[in-house]
Amino acid sequence: MSAHQASRPPEQVDGDVSELSFEEALSQLEGIVKSLEGGRSTLAQAISEYERGTALRRHCEAKLAEAEAKVQAVVEGGVGLTLRDVE
C-alpha cells in the first residue's frame, strides 16, 4: 500500500484484496472496524465498508491457512529441518 493509500479512509482504499499482503489487509481491516465502531458513516458507507471488511477477513484467513500449511510442512529430516512440498 502506498503512503497515499495509508492516509485515506479504509472505504476509499481501492484495489483487489487478493493483491494485498497479510499485513496490508489486516491494517485495512482494523481501519474499517474502527470506522464502523465510530458510527459516523452513512448507511451506504457502512455497508460498503462491511463488504470490504468481509473480503479482507477472508483474505487474511486464507493467508493464515497458507502460512500454517507451510509451517506444518516443516519436518524433521536426517540432517535437520527440511521442507516438503505443500499442495
TrEMBL record:
Subunit architecture: Heterooligomer composed of large and small subunits.
Top enzyme category: hydrolase
EC number: 3.1.11.6
Job of this protein: Bidirectionally degrades single-stranded DNA into large acid-insoluble oligonucleotides, which are then degraded further into small acid-soluble oligonucleotides.
Domain of life: Bacteria
Family membership: Belongs to the XseB family.
Protein's cellular compartments: Cytoplasm
Organism of this sequence: Sediminicoccus rosea
Predominant place of localization: cytoplasm
Catalytic activity line of the entry: Exonucleolytic cleavage in either 5'- to 3'- or 3'- to 5'-direction to yield nucleoside 5'-phosphates
Alphabetized UniProt keyword annotations: Cytoplasm, Exonuclease, Hydrolase, Nuclease
Protein known as: Exodeoxyribonuclease 7 small subunit
GO molecular function, one term: exodeoxyribonuclease VII activity
